[in-house]
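C-alpha cells for Amino acid transporter. Go.
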Amino acid sequence: MAVPYGLAAPIATSLVAGGPVTIIWGWVAVSLLTFPLACSLGEICAKYPTSAGAYYWCFKLASPRNRLLFSWINGWLTMVGVWTISLSVTFGTAQLVVAGVGIYLPGWNVQPWHTYLIFLAVTGITVIFCVFGNRILPTLDLISAYWTLLGVIVILICVSVKAATGRRPPAFALGHFDPTPSGWTPGWAFFIGLLPAYTYSAIGMIASMAEEVHNPRYELPRAIVWSIPIGFITGIFFLVPLMFTLPDIATLLSVASGQPLGVMFELIMGSKGGGFGLWFIIFGIGMFCAISISCAAARATWAFARDKAIPFHKTFAKVNQTLGGGVPMNAILLSTTIQVLLALIYLGSSAAFNAFVGVAVMCLGSSYAMPVAISLLANRRKDMTSSPFYLGRVGTPLNAIAIIWVMFEMVLFSMPAVIPTTKITMNYASVVFVGFAAFSAVWYFLSGRFHYTGPPEESEEPSTPSQDEEQRIDDAVPKEEKGGN
C-alpha cells in the first residue's frame, strides 16, 4: 500500500480542502469506511481463492445469462484501474522529484513539460526493472518493506524532535479546519480532501497471492482485512507528528510546483539537508511502489490478453522466454504506452494527478463492489454461507456499507479540488473513465461477444506444485510475479 507515499503525494489537496482536520480525521473516516469493503472481499475470496480476483468472482456469482457480460465489465474496470493506479504512482513520484529539487532550487520555474519529462524518466526506470529485474522483484519488495517501516520511524522521531517552525497545540493539530482555499462549502470540502483514500485502492490485488500461499482460504481473507488496521496505524504514526509540527499552510500552498512536501520537510527540519533526507525516504517508497505496481499492471494486461479481452490479444499474450525466465514484454509495452499517453493530460491540466488517482479509485473500487453487489442483491448472500470467512449476520450491513462507500467515492473523485474551475484546474477523471467505458463497450460488440469466454476456470482449491507441476510451469511468469508484487 506504500502508506507514507499514498498520504504524502496528495497532501496539497488535503491542505486546500481543510488542513489538519481533513488529513487526520479524513484518514480515520476512510479507514473505517474501507474496512467493510475489505471484510466483504475477504468473505468472497475465502470461497473463491483464485489469482484471477474480482472478475472471476463476478463470473462465478452471476447467473449463467449475465456472467460473461459482468466478468467482461469487471475485467475492464480492473484493467483500467491497474493502468491508472500505476500511472498515479509513477506520475506522483515524478512530482516528488520536482519537490525534492525545489529544496535546493526554490526559484526554479517548473513548467508542465519539465514534470512530464521527469515522469518519463521514472517510467523508464520502472520498465527496466519490469523487463530485466524479473528475478530480483521479491528482494526489492522485502527491501521496500524494511525501508517503509524504518522510514516511518525515522520521520516520526526527526520531526518530533526538531520542529524548527514550532509546535502546534492539539487544538490545531487535531482540530484546525479551513476550507477557504478550495471554494467548496465546509462539509463538502472535507470529503473532497479524502484523496488519500487511494492508499487502500488496491487491497483486492491481494487475491493475486492465491497460488503463492499455503491455505489461501484462511490466509488471504486475513491479509485483506488486516491490511486496513495495519495501514491505518502506519498512517497515524506518519501523519500525527506532521500535524503537530506543520509549517504555515499558506506558505506550503504557495509552492510553485504544487507539491509542498519538500518545502514542508525543509521548514520542519530547519535545514535543506534535513528536509532532503526526509524527502528521500518518501521518494524511495514511491520508487519501490512504482516498480511493483508497474509490474502488476503489466501482468494484469498479459492475463486479460490471454483471455482474449483486449485488441490484438495474441500479440500481447506472448511471453519472452529469454528475459529472466519469461517476461510478458508486449504487455509491459502496452501498459507503459497507455500510461505515457494518459500523462499528456498534465500538459493541459495542473490537476492531472487528481484525475489519475480518481480514475484508479473509481475503477478498482467499482470492480471490487461488483461481486459484493451481485452476492448481496442478486443472490441474497446465499453463496456466501459456505465461505470459510463467512460474515454471518453482519455480512448484509457490511456489504451494503461497502457498496454505498464505493458509489460515494466515484462521485468524490470526479470532483475538482477547487472551484470555480477552469480548463487547467478541472478534474478530468470522469472523462477518462467514460472514455474507457465507451471503448470497452464498443470492443465487446465488435469482438468480445464472439471470442470472450470468461476467465479461465481455476480450481477453488489452489493446487501445489507437486499436484500440478506442468500447469505451474506454463503459468510461472505471471503467477511468480504476482507473488513478487
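The chain has one domain: 3-484.
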